[in-house]
Amino acid sequence: MTATIIKIDPAHPESAFTRAREVVRSGGVIAYPTETFYGLGADPGNRVAVRRLFEIKGRPAEQPILLLIRSAGEVREWASEITRSAEILMEKFWPGPLTLVFAAKPGVMRELTAGKGTIGLREPGNPLTLKLLEVLGSALTGTSANISGGRSPETAEETAAVIGGMVDLILDGGRTTGGRPSTVMDVSQDPPRLIREGAVPPDDIFASVRLVPLRT
Question: Are the beta carbons of 40 and 46 closer than 8 angstroms?
């Protein structure tokens, strides 16, 4: 059975997002647009829903899942420490395609951290995604709506073709910009460490904190 697809009215997105909230709060999984690709959304406090997300993607358990949050003010709900470099990078690059990896607070479920003791967080730059988070009133998983290793979808139609039979709802926000995924920086240590190059140039990041880059 193919998932329901709801077209988002940019001027009045509330009805679509309210339906998404119902699905997420009931333990369902949704697909939704971000500023780069479509993402897979589940309640990060619901272990059953997060495990289902792994099953949908065919994602190895040793790979962590990043979360999208409404603002930097939510970081302390998930992170045990915020370094000075992290504060600088949040101020300069959030909202936007920069994922920051923090030391996770005790109690953050292992499925999200992959047992590494860290949690990736990002404040998205897409106004529709931020509005969705506002309506949800909570963080949302932000992994790409693809099969692990496959191409990340840029439209609702592409999303439906790949995982439409496995998710509960697809929010159609039109074509996303695509391009490179978010840059990922580990700020659980100081100086920070580059994990993945992406949409935000690493040189801009390191220049912001005036550090020599440490790369994996």
Answer: no
What does the domain layout of the chain look like in residue ranges? 4-86+94-180
In the numeric block, which tokens belong to residue 13? 């997105």
Q: What is the mean pLDDT of the chain?
A: 93
Tokens for 96, please give them: 């936007």
Whether this prediction's pTM lies above 0.90 is answered by: yes
Phi, psi of 124 (to 5 degrees): -70, 155
DSSP string, the chain: -PPEEEE--TTS-HHHHHHHHHHHHTT--EEEE-SSSEEEE--TT-HHHHHHHHHHHT--TTS---EE-SSGGGGGGTBS---HHHHHHHHHH-SSSEEEEEEBPTTS-HHHHTTSSEEEEE--S-HHHHHHHHHHTS-EE-EESS-TTSPPPSSHHHHHHHHTTT-SEEEE------SS--EEEE-SSSS-EEEE--SS-HHHHHHHHT----B-
The gap between the terminal CA atoms of the chain, to the nearest Å, is: 42
Determine what percent of the chain is predicted with pLDDT higher than 90.
88
CATH superfamily assigned to domain 4-86+94-180:
DHBP synthase (3.90.870.10)
Residue with token string 């039109």: 174
Q: At 65, which amino acid appears?
A: I
38-to-4, 61, 198 alpha-carbon distances in Å: 15, 21, 16
From its phi and psi, is residue 181 left (phi > 0), alpha (psi between -120 and 50) or beta?
beta
